[in-house]
Specification:
The complex is a heterodimer of chains A (about 300) and B (about 425).
Chain A (H helix, E strand, L loop, with lengths): L8 H10 L6 H13 L3 E5 L5 H11 L4 E5 L6 H4 L1 E3 L1 H14 L4 H8 L5 E3 L1 H6 L8 E5 L6 H13 L1 E4 L3 E4 L5 E6 L7 H5 L2 E5 L4 H11 L5 H16 L8 H13 L7 H11 L3 H7 L2 H13 L1
Parallel strand pairs in A: 1-8, 1-9, 2-5, 5-8
Antiparallel strand pairs in A: 3-4, 6-7
Helix pairs in contact in A: 1-2, 10-11, 10-12, 11-15, 12-13
Chain B lengths: L1 H16 L6 H10 L8 H12 L6 H11 L9 H14 L16 H6 L27 H13 L6 E15 L1 H8 L11 E8 L2 E6 L5 H17 L3 E6 L3 E3 L1 H6 L2 H4 L3 H4 L9 H16 L5 E5 L8 H14 L2 E6 L12 H6 L5 E4 L3 H12 L49
Parallel strand pairs in B: 3-4, 3-6, 6-7, 7-8
Antiparallel strand pairs in B: 1-2, 4-5
Helix pairs in contact in B: 1-2, 2-3, 4-5, 7-9, 13-14
The chains are: A alpha/beta (about 300), B alpha/beta (about 425).
Chain lengths: ~300, ~425
């Protein structure tokens, strides 16, 4: 299906569901509008709630390329947009010399042409060929520094970038842009204004159970319900870092690998490291509290 | 459609009046977007507006409320009462831990009365001739002296130091800037005669202030607020938190406007101002809610408290350990440390001290000057710290050698407590 041919929110929901992605109505509406208005979609939420997956399922649902830019501190134009291939440029200068006198004007023109351009993810997304727009995932933008956000503004508002040596490059088909942030810092207002925004919350019990069933089809019914209820209770406990949905999925896969069909305190204790990634949290939950949480979870289901 | 657009513009104005950041141009986007969705379905209409108009999670709740009130059928029910009620709620209502609330605010609160005094009596041109004694304790200053002390605080320069970022820029440095090597040398026929380099850029560190304003700290609170405000005015990135019953973020209040306008209102915003406090719980709130957001890039933390703690020492110990691990330098400022016979013997102080990098007084102008100087001379590296104990909750950490911790400055205003052993003398 072409992104442009999605004509209702229901259709989009169905497309996401076929990729095993359970989206609530709010998220589906946001994605739908991002497609229709051709605007970047900024997704925020705690770690492991499925922000990055949105881009992945859109790419596979529309059978198009996923171009991913992972952000980190110090990310700059030469890693995000383009870089000149210096080795080839230097070699080319030698070849020109060998062939005869080097005319500076022509040399400059040839050396800074497309042949010597290394395309990084953002430029790839703008210059992609074909009838389908690629999905451009700018992942964990809060990890990049503020200077980089400023640089993104031109790209996000007009889907174009300016390379001093080449001029302005405009996207033939605007890519579908998904930006994610873990909110370790507040993003720039100017950037947010160019995006649609959606906050993905932790799912409630029913939604999480549907996710578990969709992603791990072989999971025993009883185990799936217990695991989901346990994780839900664990999120309510006072912890530094709550378990995300991806942790739930990892955990149930681990329990199945261990041939468990039901939760018991001993097994939870052994596999706690899959759910909680902070030593302080593990220490505070271990022992008595596991049984308490498990009992509350059992009472709930 | 024109009626709808009209209503949308009204709605936008309502959101604006609630303090939400909504731009007029966005309303046209909304009108455009509504051609793609079924307006008859209320939830789709709602999410369409939300996704286009809101870009901060904290705005979602007021937005939802405004939407509920404004778009309820029939539209004629709208009245100015609703609008006012919404405004009130936006300012005082939301039950989040990080939003200042007016819950404990009462008009006859004595602390409020002292802070609400007008603060513009001094002639700025004449302050030098009437300097306040730099060694006089803050709690003994008269109102007039406080005014002059404020001007003297404002003269101090604060600098928590620079850190190396991972961003590269054209400058003298270790690495060749190949891009410019090629460009610059084209004019020499590509012979690399010039070798431009690049190096990593520097940024100023963030400063995070967490200040105790419980009962025992109240006599210092007024001067400390001026001190924090002056810090916030002189640096780009200062985060400020106050705690008594609960931790409250006051960064916006302290960085936005002039001290005289802002400071009198602050006691009303901190729940339990002047009451008892559990330092460990406040720090836990900080570590869980704010740590990841404000300590990201090697921040320097100033923790101001006298250590009178009603909470569990074990909690305080654990949270101090975590706080120290997540920041570049943890500096505890204690106003009591100014008096010659003070020993940090309270349970809270005993629990916290092993995790403090510097333990400094903050009771008079001289101590603030010493602090400013100390900050300006902070080393670029993290101080040496004891290895992380494996069984924090089990009390194993009591066996840790405590003397491996602080590396204070050589300044005479720094004193290391005699009872360095966490078990106490």
């Amino acid at each position: 299906m072409l992104p442009a041919s999605v004509s209702s929110i229901e259709q989009l929901e169905a497309l996401l569901a076929r990729q095993c992605y359970i989206a609530d109505r709010g998220l589906a509406t946001s994605i739908y509008l991002a497609l229709k208005l051709q605007r970047p979609l900024l997704l925020e939420g705690e770690a492991g709630v499925g922000k990055t997956d949105v881009a992945k399922v859109l790419a596979s649902g529309f059978e198009t390329d996923l171009i991913r830019l992972q952000c980190y501190e110090g990310l700059d134009v030469s890693h995000a947009l383009y870089e000149w291939n210096y080795a080839r440029q230097l070699l080319e200068i030698r070849l020109m010399e060998a062939a005869g006198a080097v005319d500076r004007q022509t040399a400059a023109r040839e050396l800074f042409g497309e042949a010597f351009l290394l395309k990084r993810p953002l430029l790839q997304a703008l210059t992609s060929e074909g009838d389908r727009p690629p999905v451009l995932l700018i992942d964990e933008l809060d990890r990049a520094d503020e200077e980089f956000e400023g640089f993104l503004l031109e790209l996000l508002s007009d889907f174009q970038v300016t390379i001093p040596e080449l001029g302005t490059i405009r996207a033939t088909i605007p890519p579908i842009v998904i930006i994610t942030s873990n909110r370790t810092r507040e993003l720039n207002d100017a950037l947010k204004r160019r995006c649609l925004y959606f906050w993905i919350d932790y799912p409630d019990f029913d939604k999480e159970l549907r996710i578990v069933n969709a992603k791990v089809p072989g999971a025993p019914v009883r185990l799936a319900a217990q695991v989901t209820a346990f994780v839900q209770e664990l999120r309510a406990a006072d912890l530094y870092k709550a378990a995300g949905v991806s942790e739930t999925l990892d955990w149930i896969a681990a329990l199945i690998a261990l041939d468990r069909t039901e939760l018991d305190p001993a097994t939870i204790e052994l596999t706690l490291g899959i759910l909680l990634k902070s030593q302080d949290d593990i220490a505070s939950v271990r022992g008595e509290r596991i049984s308490e949480i498990l009992n509350r979870a059992r009472a709930g289901t | 459609m024109s009626v709808l657009l009209h209503n949308l513009l009204h709605f936008g104005r309502l959101l604006h009046s609630l303090g939400l950041d909504v731009h007029a141009g966005r309303m046209l986007d909304v009108a455009g977007a509504l051609e793609h969705v079924d307006i008859g379905r209320r939830s789709d209409f709602y999410f369409t507006l939300q996704t286009l108009l809101i870009h901060r999670p904290q705005d979602i709740a007021p937005f939802a409320e405004a939407f509920r009130v404004f778009w309820r059928p029939p539209p004629g029910e709208w009245s100015t009462d609703d609008l006012r009620a919404l405004g009130e709620q936006r300012r005082f209502g939301t039950p989040r831990v990080d939003v200042p609330t007016g819950a404990s605010f009462t008009a006859d609160d004595p602390s409020l009365a002292t802070l609400a005094e007008p603060g513009e009596r001094v002639d700025p041109g004449s302050y030098a001739s009437q300097e306040v004694s730099r060694v006089k304790d803050f709690e003994q200053l008269t109102d007039e002296e406080i005014e002059r002390a404020k001007t003297m605080i404002a003269m101090l320069r604060w600098d928590p130091g620079m850190r190396l970022t991972r961003r590269w820029a054209a400058r003298r440095g270790d690495a060749l800037d190949l891009r410019r090597v090629v460009r610059r040398n084209l004019r020499y026929g590509g012979e690399p005669l010039l070798l431009p380099t690049r190096g990593r850029t520097m940024k100023r560190r963030w400063l995070v202030v967490i200040c105790d304003v419980s009962g025992s700290m109240e006599r210092y609170a007024r001067m400390l607020l001026h001190f924090i405000h002056s810090l916030a005015g002189g640096l780009d990135h200062v985060e400020a938190f106050l705690f008594a019953a609960r931790l409250t973020r006051v960064t916006r209040e302290l960085t936005s406007r002039r001290a005289a306008d802002v400071l009198p209102a602050i006691p009303g915003r901190v729940p339990g101002w002047g009451g008892g406090t559990r330092i460990g719980d406040a720090l836990r709130t900080f570590n869980v809610r704010w740590g990841r957001r404000v300590l990201g890039h090697g921040a320097v933390v100033l923790l101001i408290s006298d250590g009178w703690d009603r909470g569990e020492p074990a909690v305080l110990r654990q949270e101090m350990a975590r706080l120290q691990r997540s920041c570049h330098r943890l500096i505890w400022l204690n106003p009591l440390l100014g008096s010659a016979d003070y020993q940090p013997l309270t349970r809270g102080m005993q629990a916290a001290l092993p995790f403090v990098d510097d333990f400094l007084p903050v009771h008079n102008l001289a101590s603030l000057e010493a602090l400013a100087e100390h900050l300006n001379r902070l080393p670029g590296r993290r101080p040496a710290r004891p290895r992380r104990p494996s069984g924090l909750a089990t009390g194993l950490d009591r066996l840790l050698p405590a003397n491996t911790r602080r590396t204070g400055p050589s300044s005479s205003s720094t004193r290391h407590p005699a009872g360095a052993d966490p078990l106490g003398p």
